[in-house]
Design goal:
The chain is of the alpha/beta class and 442 residues long. It is built from 15 helices and twelve strands. Guanosine-5'-triphosphate binds next to helix 10.
Length: 442
Amino acid sequence: MSRYDTQDIIYALATPWGRSGLAVIRISGEGCRASLSPFFSSPTALIEAKNATLVHGYLLDEGNARIDEVVLAINTRGHGYTMEEAIEISCHGSIAVIQAILSLLGRIGMRSAEAGEFTFRAFIHGRLDLTQAEAVEELISSVSQSSRSLSLSRLEGRLRERIDELKESLLTLLAAVEVQLDYSEDELDEFVFPRHALATLIESIGSLADTYQIGRLYKSGAKVVLAGSTNVGKSSLFNLLLKEERSIVSPYRGTTRDYIEADLEVGGIPIRLYDTAGLRESEDLVEQEGIVRTERLIGEADLIIYLVDSTDLGHIPAEDGRTLVVYNKSDLVRPAADTLAISAQSGEGVDRLLKAVEDRLKRSLPDIGEGDLVIEGERQWRLLEGAKGALVRALELSDSVDVLDVVAVELAEALTNLGELTGEVRSDDILDRIFSGFCVGK
Ligand SMILES: Nc1nc2c(ncn2[C@@H]2O[C@H](COP(=O)(O)OP(=O)(O)OP(=O)(O)O)[C@@H](O)[C@H]2O)c(=O)[nH]1
Ligand SMILES: [Mg+2]
């Protein structure tokens, strides 16, 4: 990557800026121990430390004054995250300590790392492929348990292995076609194009690409809006789901005037839940504005929980893919069969509601089993779709022997797409875009 020099020594704070028990500052680059040793209380121990060992002591400034008591975790060349000589400083987590250490590192000739630069080095030194590098950032930004565990399996290399298998099959196909192209017909037996193998490959790539819908849902989550007339119990349900009294509940109509949002997780999906102003005709300007906002949220929602008061039915919208009609106050009126009924007061029926929300959000998604591989990145999805498109064109053309050279071009194009996925085929631009989205210090 053009803006990254991999020869120099880089450093960055890997933990958040702020007060904490400990902070971690990482350093990577050949010669980093020699650079730091004059500013460490046990220079020899630092220089001679074996890989994966800890050295305890004090960091010192140029006047030999102690900055902080620290523990240094050492990696020698060929080991650790970046595969470079590296030091991780565990220091006390105060802003003053962090500032003093970072400033020292800058003064002794190290360079402050760019976003993603440690992972970039891990990638350049072959420790991670691009799918694993992306998994690092996906794991850091995961907000649901499902997203965490799916990212971890990609970080362990499961996606890389899968892509390698697909590439292997594709190469076999391409080789068969190339041989055919290199020799004239009379030199070879009659050529039968391996249509079946190609169709299987298309199927495998397609189903991997389709898992993006699942990965995206687990990563970015869904917007769920509680809507309905006034006084139906939207705020009561909101509080019940959040297990705290966040929204004001009252027997008066029009209590909630502006929307309130909060995060929760349902069936592994991160949900942003909105409590909204009840829908009714109103003369009150503030309430009218609240209702406009409710309508806007309804327009943007992935799912609307439309709450109806069982004691006073009023308007009931038609159920569609985006709307769940839920009858509240089931403690007061016995709900009709086949309806989704709850009591936001007693909690009755809420588990069933949550299951219905989960099912609805997952309804159009492909099924995945425990431990299945799922992709989460848009880049990965685009490349898989690109590969699939090229292979579909190749399959269509494969009937006519005289366009075998075009078939070969399509197969090669698919191979390039898969190569870009793992990072064997790359450009500075692409790498720049990927790594600049990372956290500094990772
Ligand atoms: N008996 C019973 N009362 C409920 C239930 N849910 C809510 N209520 C009561 O209904 C009234 C209205 O509840 P809210 O949660 O404020 O209703 P809302 O839909 O947010 O109303 P607005 O904010 O005005 O749109 C309150 O007095 C609640 O205690 C329920 O399941 N059973
Ligand atoms: Mg309310």
